[in-house]
Write a structure and sequence with these properties.
This protein is of the alpha+beta class and about 110 residues long. Helix content is about 30%, strand content about 25%. The chain has four helices and eight strands; from the N terminus they run ββαααββαββββ. A two-stranded antiparallel ribbon has the order 1-2. The protein is globular.
Amino acid sequence: MGYSIAEQNGKRYIKTSLRNTCEYLLTKDYTDNWTGEIHETFCFWAHSDWKYSLEEHGFHLHTATVPYANPWIVTNRFEGKAVIYTMDQEKGQLVELPYPYTHVVLIAQKR
């Protein structure tokens, strides 16, 4: 899990990939089983990766396939605990991002 510390307007931030951020957010609360949890991967692929792989293997994704953020997880695990930003390169300022998807419902049909 690579990261660095970055400073912006006198504040320090952790700079890492969105995948690493999601992995941390989805495992940070499992303190009683941390050793086991760090060996699991929650954010293996993005929705687009699943779509690509399934289509490469002869499947078609149904239009009801959708990624979503579980409202309970967002409210109880993310809000008030972390804020995710990206850097607007043109303006040189941080822009807050929405919380990431936590789940995806995949409905694939064999062609």
